[in-house]
Amino acid sequence: MNHQWRIAARPEGRVKESDFVWAEEPIPTLNDGQIRVRTVYLSLDPTNRIWMEPADSYLPALPLGAVMRGLTLGVVEESRNPAYQPGDAVQGFGGWQEVYSGDADGWTKLPQIPGVPLAAFFGSMGHIGFTAYFGVMDIGQPKPGETMVVSAAAGAVGSIAGQIGKIAGCRVVGITGSDEKCDWIKRELGFDEAINYRNEKVGEALARTCPNGIDIDFENVGGEIMDAVLGRLNLGARIALCGLISQYNATAPVPGPYNFSNLLMRRARLQGFLVLDYAARFGEAAARIVPWLLSGQLKYQIDMVEGLRSAPTALNRLFDGANQGKLLVRVSSEA
Amino acid sequence: MNHQWRIAARPEGRVKESDFVWAEEPIPTLNDGQIRVRTVYLSLDPTNRIWMEPADSYLPALPLGAVMRGLTLGVVEESRNPAYQPGDAVQGFGGWQEVYSGDADGWTKLPQIPGVPLAAFFGSMGHIGFTAYFGVMDIGQPKPGETMVVSAAAGAVGSIAGQIGKIAGCRVVGITGSDEKCDWIKRELGFDEAINYRNEKVGEALARTCPNGIDIDFENVGGEIMDAVLGRLNLGARIALCGLISQYNATAPVPGPYNFSNLLMRRARLQGFLVLDYAARFGEAAARIVPWLLSGQLKYQIDMVEGLRSAPTALNRLFDGANQGKLLVRVSSEA
User: Fold this and answer.
1) How confident is the model at residue B107 (pLDDT cuts 50, 70, 90)?
2) C-alpha distance across the termini of chain B, in Å
3) Do the chains contact at A264 and B256, CB–CB below 8 Å?
4) A54-107 pLDDT, tens per residue?
5) How far apart are CA B264 and CA B261, in angstroms?
6) How confident is the model at residue A39 (pLDDT cuts 50, 70, 90)?
7) What is the pLDDT of residue B39?
8) How far is residue B172's CA from residue B298's CA, in Å, rounded to a whole number?
9) What is the four-CA torsion angle of A10, A14, A16, A21, rounded to 10 degrees?
10) What whole-number distance in Å separates Cα of residue A23 and Cα of residue A1?
């Protein structure tokens, strides 16, 4: 039997376990061209909350009763597709279930890179690392000596984005929600400064840590934190708008930043982006990231949750700021 | 004697005549390198309101008591600068006064183009036409068949921007505040559709007039009008953020657009800009605009106010939406 989490209700605000139903169904036989993948890791991302909404977002809305959409890393167990062999490591939209059985569209075979464990494809490459890479390098257009601010800097994308900013020669300031996270991004990841938004007013902290203003904002959060960043933009600043996690649980319309007019006054460029739009350039990103990873220039941390049953409650860790690094659910063992 | 409007107080909300004081001073003798310019036309622009604020904006704040900053077209009456001769037509920051006497920095000699009257340098070239040109062509990156929306479409910049959008092959929809203006931009300027925001909900009107969504927003207004436009953005849309006139008179902080998150969902690019940043490319813009002007492809209208005394009250015409086309004050006669 294949166990699954299916969407049972549209969440109001925070996700509750009762918004899902734990289901099981027999594992079907494969048709020609199809593959069967055992889920090893399920990626939990803030955008999962968007996928539960009744309206289409950048992906079609999921109907009630559907298996929850999720990015997974897994191992091919059975294949009726000549491009895949049992034992292949693969990544795709496997969903919140133990076994995916279906078409191979949208699945990618992962290369075996000595020294790079399977989980790294979610920790520092794949959608996470590539998001950070294109946001910093393509939209941020970093120049050595510039100041870059990263919100949710101890999160999966933020922690990688800040390190790529450092590699590009920027002074990098991270905003996080705990002293422990501040400590981690400074000591382990090499951020120049860290701000705990729960302890200090972000505007004042930015005035202290960004005396020469802000050239690049890698924005994951929105709301008051982004507003404070927009208040200190330099002329010609770039904002890589990656996420707005502060408003994904909102139950009423959320106003945009009060410092919106600064985008005009400072002639800033703001670009919303999704990593899926860069699919044609994933090879370029991987070719840059892998050497950084192997040399230790780029570090990542996995925040592992055990067992598919935990997925609904674990998802809220992202919105509580409880995770440090990439939040994954271990659904089965690698070997 | 030289008559002037000097700043007497910081406006609260709308500008009042009492925020200025009518002053006179003797015309000074010139030093080496200086020029004396008789003001012919004073340009009134929404950004004048920003210049009255106590804080620095994209230009330094003006101290109380200073001659009000203003862009002017004039005629050189006396010159101790070898680059200028009496009779030269010039453009510069002459200020709200009858005569400018001072350094030649920032002044530009205007070419004599047969068929192009002096006022055209404010109506369709100079800061107005160049703002429209770079906003549409550089930031908007128009492709034939795309849909472009222009707010304040019967204003100085908006009316030119929409026509440049048409020249670039776009379907152009203008938003204005009266039926007369709607009529003008459709019949005279060739806009495809016009929306009177005082008669119709802008969101509904955009759904009707932009059935294929919006690819380019030439944004002059902000507030609810911009919010409605952001609600219908296509994937990869571009927003040329030129002005936010709806909030220049605000006396309390103004929230950003409620549809801000659509910039992320639709992967839109928003670029704030000021024409002064494009100074190095003004020649390119002029070379494109002059033929359009001479061939009649690009039309402009001057909304003329008589006499420097009228400037403070005339400024509010911009915020009331009373002007159609470029608002100028005639300070003295061309000849």
Assistant:
1) very high
2) 20
3) no
4) 998 889 999 999 999 999 999 999 999 999 999 999 999 999 999 999 999 989
5) 5
6) very high
7) 98
8) 14
9) 30
10) 10
CA dihedral B10→B11→B17→B23, nearest 10 degrees, is: 10
Considering only alpha carbons, which residue of chain A is nearest residue B258? A255
pLDDT digits (tens, 9 = 90+) for B146-170: 999 999 999 999 999 999 999 999 9
SS3 B216: strand
Delimit the domains of chain B by residue range.
2-124+301-330, 126-276
**CA-based nearest residue in chain B for residue A246:** B261
Query: What span, in angstroms and rounded, lies between the C-alpha atoms of A322 and A313?
Result: 12
Q: pLDDT band at residue B173, thresholds of 50, 70 and 90?
A: very high
* Alpha-carbon gap, residue B307 to B41, rounded angstroms: 9
What interface predicted TM-score (ipTM) does this complex get? Answer: 0.92
Beta strands in chain B (DSSP E): 2-7, 20-25, 34-43, 72-79, 89-92, 99-103, 108-109, 147-151, 171-176, 193-196, 214-219, 233-241, 269-272, 302-306, 326-330
User: In sequence order, which residues have a C-beta less than 8 Å from that of residue B50 and are 6 or more positions away?
Assistant: B57, B58, B248
CATH classification of A2-123+301-330, choosing from 3.40.140.10, 3.40.50.300, 3.90.180.10, 1.10.10.10?
Answer: 3.90.180.10
* CATH topology agreement for domains A2-123+301-330 and A126-276: no
| Placement of tokens 């005035």 in the chain | A207
pLDDT band at B124 (very low <50, low <70, confident <90, very high): confident
Tokens at A332, concatenated: 């089965």
- Any idea what the Cα angle at residue A104 is, between residues A99 and A105, rounded to 5°? 120
Q: Quote the distance between the C-alpha of residue B136 and its chain's center.
A: 14
Among candidate residues B158, B111, B116, B109, the one with its CA nearest the CA of residue B291:
B116
Query: Which of A45, A61, A46 minimizes the C-alpha distance to A10?
Result: A61
For B126-276, which CATH superfamily applies?
A: NAD(P)-binding Rossmann-like Domain (3.40.50.720)
Interatomic CA distance for residues B69 and A141, integer angstroms = 35
Residues on chain A bordering chain B, Cβ-to-Cβ distance under 8 angstroms? 57-58, 222, 241-244, 247, 253-261, 263-274, 277
Residue B255 and residue A255: Cβ atoms within 8 Å? yes
Disruptive mutation site among B247, B249, B261 for chain A (greatest number of A CBs within 10 Å): B261
Query: Would you state the CATH architecture of domain B2-124+301-330?
Result: Alpha-Beta Complex (3.90)
Q: B150 vs A262, B2, B12, CA distance in Å?
A: 21, 40, 29
CA distance B176 to B194: 7
Please report the pLDDT score of residue A113 as a whole number. 86
Question: Cβ neighbours of residue A147 under 8 Å, at least 6 residues apart?
Answer: A170, A171, A172, A173, A210, A212, A213, A214, A215, A216, A234
Cα B159 to Cα B154: distance, rounded to the nearest angstrom: 5
**b/e string for A87-119 if b means 16 or more Cβ within 10 A?**
ebbbbbebbbbbbbbbebeebeebeeeeebebb
Chain B residue numbers touching A273 (CB-CB < 8 A)? 264, 267
Token duo for residue A270: 């703001």
pLDDT at B125 over 90: no
Question: What residues contact residue B135 under an 8 Å CB cut-off, 6+ apart?
Answer: B157, B161, B218, B240, B242, B273
Instruction: Taking each helix axis as running N to C, give the angle between helix B126-133 and helix B156-167, from 0 to 180 degrees, rounded to the nearest 10.
Output: 40
Dump the DSSP string for B128-173.
Answer: HHHHHHIIIIIII---TT-EEEEESTTBHHHHHHHHHHHHTT-EEE
pLDDT in tens, A138-158: 999 999 999 999 999 999 999
Instruction: Give the model's pLDDT for residue B238.
Output: 98
